[in-house]
Design a protein that fits this description.
Layout: H1 3-40, E1 44-48, H2 53-64, E2 68-73, H3 76-90, E3 94-98, H4 104-117, E4 122-124
Parallel strand pairs: 1-2, 1-4, 2-3
């Protein structure tokens, strides 16, 4: 291997290492920012379709990250069970909002809840087909 080739390989290796460090720093900064926001005033996420499937997975993940939740789905009893689990396991506050978002009446109720509260920072709009 020539000296020039050695320098090129060393330069590429340094570049790859820098990219890895840069990604790591961005991830650390994002985590610090989220932690700061959660400590300053807890964030609240609303999750539609939260009683099962992908919506339930999102709700559980957000609760584990410290988000307070508004769980929205048709099955009120299932939502209450989940709320109890998230509150005890993760120490978050959970509001249960039973609604069938295929009906105009429940969509209007949810719109009123969101407009009146102005406390939802994040929405996972997962309900429906």
């Amino acid at each position: 291997m020539s000296k020039k080739t050695g320098w090129i390989i060393a330069g590429l290796a340094a570049g790859v290492a820098w990219i890895g460090v840069s990604r790591q720093r961005r991830a650390q900064n994002a985590n610090r920012w989220q932690t700061h926001l959660l400590k300053a005033g807890r964030l609240k996420a609303a999750v539609t379709g939260a009683s099962s499937g992908i919506g339930e997975a999102y709700a559980r993940s957000l609760a584990a990250q410290g988000y307070d939740l508004v769980l929205i789905a048709r099955r009120a009893e299932r939502l209450r069970q989940q709320a109890a689990v998230y509150e005890s396991q993760y120490g978050v506050q959970v509001e249960v909002f039973p609604a069938d978002l295929s009906t105009d009446a429940d969509i209007a109720r949810l719109e009123q809840r969101i407009a009146a509260g102005q406390d939802i920072d994040f929405l996972v709009n997962n309900a429906g087909y």
